[in-house]
TrEMBL record:
This is Cytochrome P450. It holds the Pfam family p450. Heme binds at residue 424. GO terms for molecular function: heme binding; iron ion binding; monooxygenase activity; oxidoreductase activity, acting on paired donors, with incorporation or reduction of molecular oxygen. Keywords: Heme, Iron, Membrane, Metal-binding, Monooxygenase, Oxidoreductase, Transmembrane, Transmembrane helix. It comes from Triparma columacea. The chain crosses the membrane at residues 7-25. InterPro entries: Cyt_P450, Cyt_P450_CS, Cyt_P450_E_grp-I, Cyt_P450_sf, Cytochrome_P450_Monoox.
Length: 478
């Protein structure tokens, strides 16, 4: 008995010694970077605000400036929100790579696809898929986007005319249908697996996000990780069905869309590569686009004067037409500015990170980051930085008319879709889709504010609302 207790005591002591030495090592390595007190094992998690990462990091920014270390446990990250340094981090892809958060944590869901791969594999993946995501490629799907949005408005919103709705399901289904047709010629309208996919992709994203942001392990015996791995297998089986259908259509000589499915088959990707690439595109593009739609509708409901201006613009450009053309989308500049302002305040991908493969100096301020440091770029905080944005928390789409910023602005640190060679491949798809969805919605529907509703925002991989996005829906008189 005594010897068992002795062994437990010895193991505990050894564990605590290793943890403390590791903590000391990290503390010395990053001594030159400003920060608040951290403790062995728990880092800064003793702080009551630490689990609310955005709030905690904004407090740290006020105290320590735009570069500081953040300890979500025993291993610190260096938070960098100085636009010039962020540019260096996101463009010098030889020094700043996607590290173990991507290869161990993201990879549980994404495998080795476009989001997680590095170097040559990433370049090959990107060149296989990029041509489908350019503006002209996306515009081939305007007709489908219009048809699907109209169908969803009539089937999902019309029945709740005059009452309230949580818009998550509406935008998740719409985003899934557009994604399915765009990437694989598949319409999810009557697919019995659609609900499961919507739910699983969202759940997977929030679990992995939590494990990354709070530095939690992803051991296979943890029940939620075990379940996630089973869900990924089910997703691969679903993708196999889509591939089989395409192959049998090909064998029957049916015409085929020039889409990512075709690109992957023509490039002779293995089945495993195709499963991982499709899961990657779906996981990266689905929750993001759906929540973008939710936040846009929510902000229009809070700001009736902005909503009216969008309605006026849509009327001016389209009249009563619904056949939206590429030229129409270019003319809806106020709507585009509203979308940009929504992405500024609700930065759907709130954080990105990179790991240094060698010691490196941040060119703009001379601070050095040792090899193996994770640099965390809080896109969400940069978008509300008072040094860059006047009245940063105010919803003011007109600021983009004055600034003449395109979808991204490296100078302002406004990077809702990232920056450099790893910029979001789906940014044009998301913006065109957003434009079509809201042009058609604004022709028919007015969103209204629910006085006692406020979304509870939580930052994982994407920025989600844990209590949904509720608005009132009223169909306009014809
Ligand atoms: C509003 C919607 C969206 C937002 C805010 C968004 C945001 C982002 C951001 C910030 C990144 C950069 C991540 C990093 O640097 O680590 C990214 C990458 C990526 N996004 Fe999106 N995204 C959206 C929609 C989409 C869509 C519709 C797709 C595809 C269907 C997509 C697919 C991807 C992929 C594959 C990457 C990785 C690109 C690479 O590393 O080469 N995203 N996204």
């Amino acid at each position: 008995m005594l010897s068992i207790l002795g062994m437990i005591g010895y193991a505990t002591l050894s564990f605590l010694t290793i943890i403390t030495l590791q903590w000391l090592y990290e503390l010395v390595r990053l001594w030159h970077i400003p920060s608040s007190l951290s403790l062995p094992l728990i880092g800064q998690l003793y702080h009551p605000h630490a689990p609310m990462v955005m709030k905690f990091l904004s407090g740290m920014r006020r105290k320590h400036g735009k570069i500081f270390s953040f300890w979500p446990g025993n291993t610190p990250m260096v938070v960098v929100m100085e636009p010039k340094c962020v540019r260096q981090i996101l463009t010098d892809t030889k020094t700043f790579v996607k590290g173990s958060d991507y290869s161990n944590k993201f990879a549980i869901v994404f495998g080795e696809g476009l989001v997680t791969s590095n170097g040559t594999k990433h370049r090959q993946d990107r060149s296989c898929l990029a041509k489908y995501f350019v503006r002209s490629g996306v515009e081939n799907y305007l007709g489908y986007m219009v048809e699907t949005t109209q169908d969803m408005i009539e089937t999902t919103l019309r029945p709740v005319d005059g009452s309230t709705i949580d818009l998550q399901e509406f935008f998740h289904m719409l985003a899934l249908r557009v994604f399915g047709y765009f990437s694989a010629g598949h319409d999810y309208k009557n697919d019995p697996e659609a609900q499961w996919i919507n739910h699983t992709v969202s759940k997977g994203s929030s679990i992995i996000g939590e494990h990354i942001v709070l530095g939690l392990p992803v051991w296979s015996f943890i029940p939620r990780i075990k379940q996630l791995k089973k869900d990924v297998q089910k997703m691969h089986a679903h993708i196999e069905k889509l591939i089989k259908r395409r192959l049998s259509d090909r064998a029957a000589g049916k015409p085929e869309n020039d889409d990512p499915m075709k690109g992957m088959l023509d490039a002779n990707l293995s089945r495993k590569e195709m499963y991982e690439q499709f899961t990657t595109l779906l996981s990266a593009g689905h929750d993001t686009t759906a929540f973008f739609g939710c936040y846009m509708a929510y902000m229009l409901a809070q700001h009736p004067e902005v909503q009216q201006k969008v309605k006026d613009e849509v009327k001016e450009v389209l009249g009563g037409r619904t056949d939206i053309t590429p030229e129409d989308t270019k003319k809806m500049t106020y709507t585009a500015n509203v979308m940009k302002e929504v992405l500024r305040l609700y930065t759907v991908i709130p954080f990105v990170n990179r790991t240094t493969v060698t010691d490196v100096k941040l060119r703009d301020n001379g601070l050095s980051l040792p090899k193996g440091t994770t640099a965390l770029v809080p896109l969400c905080l940069m978008n509300r930085d008072g040094d860059v944005w006047e009245n940063p928390n105010e919803f003011n789409p007109d600021r983009f008319a004055d600034l003449k910023i395109s979808d991204n602005s490296a100078k302002h640190g406004y990077l809702p879709f990232g920056y450099g060679s790893r910029t979001c491949i789906g940014n044009t798809l998301a913006m065109v889709e957003g434009n079509v969805m809201f042009a058609l919605l604004m022709q028919k529907v007015t969103f209204t504010k629910i006085p006692d509703f406020k979304p509870k925002i939580s930052a994982g991989i994407s920025l989600v609302s844990t209590n949904g996005i509720r608005v009132g829906v009223t169909f306009d008189k014809e």
